Amino acid sequence: MAEQKYDIVLFGASGFTGQYTVDEVARVAEEESLTWAIAGRSMEKLQKALSEASSRTGKNLDETPIIIADVSSTSSLEEMAKQAKVVLNCVGPYRFYGEPVVKACIENGAHHLDISGEPQFLEKMQLLYNAKAQEKNVFVIGTVGFDSIPAEMGLEYTRQQFTDGELTNIESYFESKSGPDGAAINTGTFESAVYGLAHWNELKSLRKALYPDPMPKYQYKVPKRSALFYSDELKKWCLPFLGSDKSVVYRTVRDFLSTKRLEKPIEFLPYMCFPSLLSAIGLIIFGIIFYILSRCSFGRSFMLKYPHIVSFGFFKKGGPTRKQIEGCSFSMTFIGYGFSKSEKDRTKPDKKIVTKLVGPEPGYVTTPICMVQSAVTVLKETSKMFHKGGVLTPGAAFQGTGLINRLQEHGLTFTKVSDESIDKKDN
Fold this sequence. Notes:
globular, membrane, Saccharopine_DH-like_oxidrdct, Saccharopine dehydrogenase NADP binding domain-containing protein, Sacchrp_dh_NADP-bd, NAD(P)-bd_dom_sf
């Protein structure tokens, strides 16, 4: 095997998210004294990406190494992986383009981190490649962007703050804030969602193969909420959050149980908040249209051709402007329930905690921060990681490391809002 040359190789650097990740790698590589290169199909586009990143960051990136690699060429992926300690993979949709990169990384000793929010891809990779990755001492860690680092690290932070007791249930409430210029998302995310919903039935067989035994029963289940409800605590209308967070946390809990890091499972229920009932109903209507169109080939073709029409301008080719991105931010509130060590009656929790995570625009600012700090953690804190390799979730991989602190140093803020006892008469 060729000697590894670069700490980080960013694959897909000329793509929309990749360009923002170039900026972040350039800044962090200088801070951490890391060597790095970018990779992709087109020399011209990669050179342009470096030139534009130089203008944005004020750093001279003209001499940054470039590797030509294409998902359709196994040999090029192998050559890229041979030159990397960590490959940051920004080439999606991962259902079509992810597996060859994962395979090349495992076979050539490079850790693979991606920002996929596609449960089918993530769970398929775990089923097919976990044993081989463990054998090679290679980490394959998915969802290291906004999907699902905030959820995973928010849960871990809440667990850390839940002292003198046992956390059993947690609800997360996501809220986005856009500036005066509005918000938009690049169509790559839209494409992944279209194909993910179209092939949702694949998950049943995947999960049966991954986890033949059912999850152990929860000690306590939070009372079931209606699909649309008003949160008195947050003063917002809420709906279930349909991203990958729940499935990712589910896999993390499974890993913790199997490795004896948890004795009993934690229930995780993610929601998203809306400023008004009307905006929540609007998303429900969009969701119905999205579901109907995704179930047939004609509908999928129409959505992929005209995403701006279907999404009323929220998803658009070319993504948001820099001004739109600068005006956006997000928050996640975590409400946890559990039992104090002295509590003998384990029918209803006697303890409640509220924590909060606040960060910049999720898709193109928070995602690169999370991805790059995950890579730095793999490079510099391997000895602290419980596993020595495998296809893992961020929560399973990074528990016990300094990732939360690293995120706090780069723009995300974790705080404990409250920690109180519960009157069981009112619970």
